[in-house]
Amino acid sequence: MSDESPHARDIIFGSQQARILARLHELDPDLAHDIQTYAYDTVYDRPGLDLKTRELIACALLVSLGSPPELRTHLRGALNAGATEAEVRGALMTCVPYLGFPRAVAGFEVLRQHLQAAGQATPKAGPTQGAGPEDKV
């Protein structure tokens, strides 16, 4: 990666980067350094997957771990990396058969809180039972 290109963390953290790095540094300076240099500046900047895909995977993994603060960071990061709200919702829905409804519901709640705080509308009522494509007029 050239010095002119932004690091993945610049995109993922966006305007929250200083706050996030300060929080990590307050927890432990060595931890902050290792997260920044290894997780973001090494793993996330590797070739092979685009950043949006990496972030959608991270979201699913963080739902599995039950880590709301980190999930919020990576939901925002996925959106910053170009994922649409529908793609983020798709990643969270994919968690249901593997992790169960409680974990997925918790992930959707973090997304709802993020969208609400960002002033973005959450979707209206989705499809209901018996309202499939064949039921449309």
From TrEMBL:
PANTHER family: 4-CARBOXYMUCONOLACTONE DECARBOXYLASE FAMILY PROTEIN (PTHR33570), CARBOXYMUCONOLACTONE DECARBOXYLASE-LIKE DOMAIN-CONTAINING PROTEIN (PTHR33570:SF2)
InterPro entries named among the record's database cross-references: 4CMD/NDH-1_regulator (IPR052512), AhpD-like (IPR029032), CMD-like (IPR003779)
A GO molecular-function descriptor: peroxiredoxin activity
Protein name, as recorded: 4-carboxymuconolactone decarboxylase
Organism (species): Deinococcus arcticus
Domain Carboxymuconolactone decarboxylase-like: 29-112
Gene3D superfamilies named among the record's database cross-references: AhpD-like
